[in-house]
């Protein structure tokens, strides 16, 4: 049994139905597809899987707060969580469905078009979080994104802050946020486009990332971690700036889920008390491994893989 306090994640699970074809059909038309795959998705679930795998045998327990329908996609979610060791603190809602997404991929370009139906998770309320206040208060780190309604995100962050729990907000999908909510975030982890949407500052280089981070800290955020894709990650708080280059674990197969991998592993490292620079390197290694494999949840790195990559220096 781990002596490290848990990581608690709020978010959604999506069953992603991925279709690859030459082009999208027009209304009333049928086209033949080239490939299909049903994958586990949803940023919150992906981050919980990342955290659980990064935790290994001695790291923190990982709890996931969400809503599911009473259907086959819910069974899919529970199977993945069980296999990964995630403890599901989930309400089943028989009145609606588990989150799902239609993803069309254009074969020639890889461009996509997506329809997301969050279903049960789209009905998360502040009351769902208040009912789990004891769990959140017992955590070392609370992690959330913006796929559940903002009122649930705000409630979870507020409960964690009141209990002295570290808070991480991954502001995706990107949307405008008020200063009151931002002030509840010990760590905000946008990518370049999310940082730009929140601040109006173009993030095309390190100087832009630093300026965006400063603007967000001026609005109350404790520290900002801007994920920069192939350029690594930039961390900035009131007293220091740290840039960590990308961790290269092999040829890039697919970048889907890399940000989720980073956030889940970063939460584990913080829960274990790793200094920020080491936590950033740990999370970067997890993300670097994830991009060498296709898929989202399926690509998340194990603790042994992360440790081995870090040992290579």
TrEMBL record:
The protein's name in its UniProt record: Ribokinase
Binding site for ATP: 191, 227-232, 259-260, 284
Domain of life: Bacteria
Keyword Magnesium: yes
Pathway note: Carbohydrate metabolism; D-ribose degradation; D-ribose 5-phosphate from beta-D-ribopyranose: step 2/2
Enzyme Commission designation: 2.7.1.15
Main location: cytoplasm
Residues bound to substrate: 14-16, 42-46, 147, 260
Origin species: Pseudogemmobacter faecipullorum
Every Carbohydrate kinase PfkB domain range: 7-300
Assembly and binders: Homodimer.
The family this protein is said to belong to: Belongs to the carbohydrate kinase PfkB family. Ribokinase subfamily.
Cofactor: Mg(2+)
NCBIfam families: D_ribokin_bact
UniProt subcellular location: Cytoplasm
Single GO MF descriptor: ribokinase activity
Amino acids binding K(+): 256, 290, 293, 295, 299
Entry function: Catalyzes the phosphorylation of ribose at O-5 in a reaction requiring ATP and magnesium. The resulting D-ribose-5-phosphate can then be used either for sythesis of nucleotides, histidine, and tryptophan, or as a component of the pentose phosphate pathway.
């Amino acid at each position: 049994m781990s002596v490290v306090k848990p990581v608690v994640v709020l978010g959604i699970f999506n069953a992603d139905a991925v279709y690859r074809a030459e082009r999208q059909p027009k209304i009333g038309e049928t086209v033949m597809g080239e490939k299909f795959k049903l994958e586990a998705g949803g940023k919150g679930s992906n981050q919980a899987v990342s955290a659980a795998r990064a935790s290994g045998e001695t790291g923190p327990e990982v709890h996931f707060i969400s809503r599911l329908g009473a259907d086959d996609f819910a069974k899919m979610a529970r199977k993945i969580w069980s296999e990964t060791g995630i403890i599901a603190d989930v309400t089943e809602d028989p009145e609606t469905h588990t989150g799902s997404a239609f993803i069309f991929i254009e074969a020639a370009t890889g461009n996509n078009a997506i329809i997301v139906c969050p279903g049960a998770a789209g009905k998360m309320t502040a009351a769902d979080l208040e009912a789990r206040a004891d769990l959140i208060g017992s955590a070392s780190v609370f992690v959330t994104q913006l796929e559940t309604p903002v009122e649930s995100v705000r409630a979870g962050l507020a409960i964690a802050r009141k209990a002295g729990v570290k808070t991480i907000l991954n502001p995706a999908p990107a949307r405008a946020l008020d200063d009151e909510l931002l002030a509840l975030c010990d760590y905000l982890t946008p990518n370049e486009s999310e940082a730009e949407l929140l601040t109006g500052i173009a993030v095309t280089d390190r100087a832009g990332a630093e300026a965006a981070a400063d603007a967000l800290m001026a609005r109350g955020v404790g520290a900002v971690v801007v994920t920069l894709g192939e350029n690594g990650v930039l961390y900035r708080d009131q007293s220091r700036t740290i840039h960590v280059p990308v961790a290269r674990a092999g040829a890039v197969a697919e970048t889907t889920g890399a940000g989720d991998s980073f956030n889940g592993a970063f939460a584990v490292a913080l829960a274990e008390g790793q200094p920020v620079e080491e936590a950033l390197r740990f999370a970067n290694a997890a993300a670097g491994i994830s991009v060498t494999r296709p898929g989202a949840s399926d690509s998340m790195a194990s603790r042994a893989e992360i440790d081995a990559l870090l040992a290579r220096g």
